[in-house]
Amino acid sequence: MKSKISGTFILIQGTSLLKLVATILLFMLFIFSISGILTSLKPQYRLSSASVNHVSMNVNGDLLYQLMGWENHHFLTVKRDVNVPTLTNVVFKLSSNINLDDPRSLLGRELPGFYQFDGKILVAGEGTNYTNMPIESSPPNEIMKAEQEAALQNLEGIDKSPDENPSSTPGQTTGDRKVVYVYFSHNRESFLPYLKGVTDPNLANHSQINVTKIGDQLKSSLEDRGIGTFVDKTDIQGNLNKKGLKYTKSYQESRAVVQAAMASNRDLTYFFDIHRDSRRKKDTTISINGQSYARLAFVIGGKNPNYEKNAKLASKLHDLLQKKYKGLSRGVIVKSNNGNAVYNQNLSENAILIEFGGVDNTFDELNRSADALADVFSEYFWQAENVNQNVEQSTDKQ
């Protein structure tokens, strides 16, 4: 009888062990299956660190209090008149990367291409909202490969600087030092008023008449204010064509150019990547004191771990523009989930991408905006220089 009971007990133990092993195997199979599914998804569908970041930003004091209460029920004995998010909502946000308070997070998964408009408005300029943020368009592949160019028109006076550009000798100067570096990751972005027969914004590209001319005006205006500036007109798009690389590799190509410049000139401190928006005239033009200006937009790459420092510079320039040229700045936009989203800004805490106007703007408008930017930047620059000099003098005395 004892032997029968002992055998039954061993049989039960064996069955339990088999169930345990089977459960572990099934769990491991489940984990591997989930991992495989997640890694096979397209990038825009994957759970990323940005997803966790979005959720963590919503962990305010009330939610934190509730989370602590789930662990220690004594916290919940204190009555709090607040609406606390439920655990279900938090888990849903984290697992799906969908924020029910922001429809774009859902639509971006359902509408093709919609996720490209994702971004965060850090500082909103006048009239700026999520429907008219800067658009980074790409020329069709056949344009890139064949290097087709439109005939030019309206070129009279294109290289003439606006009369308001100051010519007086500045009271302060950087001397022989070049401290501002201007470059163009999309150097062939052009403007429809100068391209004969071209009406499609995506076709507004040209090897000669393009955003690089803004660099000439910006350099002239900055140096009139004593700030040494270097303009790099490396043909990034031409290099891509020669190497057989896609347009999306533009920032990779320009990065090497910027790094070489930094290595050869240690004085370079500020880095401006000049672009042209694809939006139309109503969003990119403003009248100030009876004159037409091309509006500016500051774009910051949110995938740069130190993007807050770049955003700080952009925000200060936006504020200065608001004081002296109200409405000229469209604001500061942080892009984290679309495009390059770094824009070489991890190379320096003083690196920003600036959208100058749009496809419909003229160089009269663009040059005025370059002068305005130089005006407020010089104010920021010399104030910062004076602060640094005072700090150095105080250090020397100590």
From TrEMBL:
Highest taxon above the source species: Bacteria
SUPFAM superfamilies: Zn-dependent exopeptidases
Sequence intervals crossing the membrane: 20-41
InterPro entries attached to this UniProt entry: Spore_II_P (IPR010897)
Keywords linked to the UniProt accession: Membrane, Transmembrane, Transmembrane helix
Coiled coil: none
Name listed for the protein in its UniProt record: Stage II sporulation protein P
Native species: Neobacillus sedimentimangrovi
